[in-house]
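Blackboard transcription, Thursday session:
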Amino acid sequence: MLRPMRTVVILGTLVALAVVGCATATKTTIGTGDPVAKAGAPETVAVNAEALSLHAQRIPSLFPEGSLTDKSKAKPDIWQKWPEFQAAAKNLENRAATLRDQAVAKDGTAVTATVQTFGRDACGTCHTPFRVPPPQQQPAQPRS
Amino acid sequence: MRNWRVKSTVALASVVALALASSATGQSTAKLWTGDPVADRQRLMKLNGASWADAQAKLKAGNAEAVAVNAETMALIATQIVTLFPQGSLTDKSKAKPEIWQKWPEFEEAVKNFGSQAEKLRDAARTKDLAATEAVAKEFGRQACGTCHTPFRVPPPQQQPTR
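(Written on the board underneath:)
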């Protein structure tokens, strides 16, 4: 009975995170259909930032207790440090909203500055403590 | 009188301390929802329109699988729409029709339908089947957007019926 529910939760989590990843990817084309059109037009970033913030709001509900399977890259620390995890998701939500507001204001300098630190200050505050890093980010194993 | 002054000083100091703490930790204070439902829903619909435009561009390029994230975004947007139309949120900036509140169950149903259609588009895209995804997309404007926009939104000028 619990199994289909877990599958749905895991799939939902993966899709939601894929959306977040897509919205932050440098080649994202949402809103213009053409990444070149985004160059020098900070206001076009607003929809991407809106999407990030909207998805961030949903993140904690996609990590119910017991949703850790072998397909998941989530660390058990999520549930051991739940308030910190919630705060990290909220941080992403708020930073994305900041980026959106800067984009709406057409403040290119502020948008560029926020984007430059977004990976570390927004994605990183959750991924670093709470996600098993992908292979290329794994620390090298000492040779025996 | 003195008590009031002490309270004011404490309140002011708390606000300043919170602002400083926020600044020192680099915490962002911007919020997803601004408290202005008309502005919030118009921004959300802008994201919706951009997601749909992007999905169409991807289909045109023959990339069905990539449409999934756009459809996911639209499905997520659908879960937020109803709460962004509280009673009395009809201003001169809004294109919402009063029918929304007069026929609230129908409005809720239309929003639910939009969410289901977006999920249908997402699921088709995930199969990487271009023809199947295009088939859902072909009807999306009428069956997803239209079921809400036609009865509940004042049409933009180019769609106004000619006299």
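Lecturer's comment: Chain B is about 70% helix and 0% strand.
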